[in-house]
Amino acid sequence: MKTAILFKKLLGAMFAVALLAGAQAAAAQDAATVASGKVLFTRLCAACHGADRSDQGRAMLPGTDALRIKYKGQLPALLEQRTDLTPDVIRTFVRRGTWSMPPFRKTEISDAGIDAVSAYIADAARTKR
Ligand code: HEC
Question: Choosing a second label site near 34 at 20 to 30 A (CA), which of 46, 70, 81, 87?
Answer without folding.
Answer: 70
